[in-house]
Amino acid sequence: MVNTFLAHDLLWGMTPEQLPVDAPAWVSESISAGQPVVVRRALSAPDHIAVGVRGRLREQRFATVMSIDVISRRVKPEDLCHVSIDRDVPAVHALNQLRPMLDDCGWVWGVSGSAGFELASGFQALHARSDLDLILRAPQPLDRLKAQALVRILDTAACQVDMQLQTPFGAIALREWAGPARRVLLKNAREACLVIDPWEQAA
Amino acid sequence: METLSFEFPAGQPPRGRTLVGCVGSGDLEVLIEPGQAGKLTIKVQTSVNGAEQRWQHLFARMFDGQTPPAMAIDIHDFGATPGVVRLRLEQGFEEIGHD
User: Which residues are annotated as modified residue O-(phosphoribosyl dephospho-coenzyme A)serine in the UniProt record (chain B) (predicted)?
Assistant: First the structure.
């Protein structure tokens, strides 16, 4: 099976038996409860995928790998743009507010982080102080002026909104790309590095 | 949330100041300003608790065998990996070097 999973995808099908023996108890509890795992940006064997398990607390994040064979369901961030939930928290208000503007921006966008997790799974992950994490698929270069225009849109929202641009070579933070830094942090499965052009293959 | 402080011997203060990095999970923001001659001070505000040793090691290794400029470094960390921390610090040092 060709490995087409992307960072931030949510996957179901993992069972506690597939966890390493040294995994903390809360990890097994999360999985047993039917929570999905989140695809991480990391290298793994061809028949496995690097994933993260979320716990209830902020510092409860567990990195592991999942066998591709056991995946029963996959939800991508872009599948969640038009899912609505009835929750009175700033991140949900921000999402409702930004949705029409992002739909008009001409790029594929998606919801990640705790908002994406809750929208996809129904497990409560958002709280009153949660940021809204979004992704934007950017197969072609998005110039810095357009990035600044996008930041201005995001800054009208009810909470802090962090958007990651997914280029063919990794991910960068929209805010940094819109800022004055000459080089920006690009993260991919292999490494994190500072690059001038995130749409150019590294040497 | 935890605030940590570190101090290292240093040379003369740099002239410039700079802000590099980004607010957002897995990243950090680094503010570098001229410090007091002879002293490099680092303040780290981090969302990850119990990592004082790891920061100490990381800085010690970075400044090992050299006399860094006397900087006052202010870090806001959002769970960055040591690799990302090192990249951001190097980026900041490069920026103040340019002024």
Answer: 25
Does any domain span residue A2? no
**Domain termination residue (choose one: A75, A93, A115):** A75
Catalytic residue among A9, A22, A133, A155: A133
Which band of pLDDT confidence, cut at 50, 70 and 90, is reported for residue B98?
Answer: low
**How do residues B30-86 score in pLDDT, each as one tens digit?**
999 999 999 999 999 998 888 899 999 999 999 998 899 999 999 999 989 999 999
Determine the residue of chain A that is closest to B90 in CA distance: A194
> Is A173's CB within 8 Å of B22's CB?
yes
Do residues A42 and A26 share a domain? yes
Q: Which two tokens stand for residue A179?
A: 């800022």
Among candidates A58, A162, A179 on the partner chain, residue whose Cβ is nearest the Cβ of B24: A162
Query: If you count them, how many residues does chain A have?
Result: 203
> Per the domain annotation, does A1 fall within a domain?
no
Per-residue pLDDT for A1 more than 50? no
Interface membership of A185 toward B (CB under 8 Å) = yes
| A162 and B CB contact within 8 Å | yes
The answer to whether A49 and A66 have CB atoms below 8 angstroms apart is yes
User: What total number of domains does chain A contain?
Assistant: 2
ipTM of this complex: 0.83
> Which residues lie closer than 8 Å to A118 by C-beta, 6 or more apart?
A85, A87, A124, A125, A126
Run of H or E including B31? strand B28-34
Residue A53 lies in a domain: yes
A111-162 residue pLDDT tens: 999 999 999 999 999 999 999 999 999 999 999 999 999 999 999 999 999 9
Residues of B74-91 as b/e, b for ≥16 C-beta within 10 angstroms?
bbbbbbbeeebbbbbbeb
Q: Is residue A186 part of a domain?
A: yes
**By residue range, what is the domain housing residue A99?**
77-195
Rounded to two decimals, the pTM is: 0.89
Contact flag B22-A175 (C-beta cutoff 8 Å): yes
Same-domain check for residues A66 and A119: no
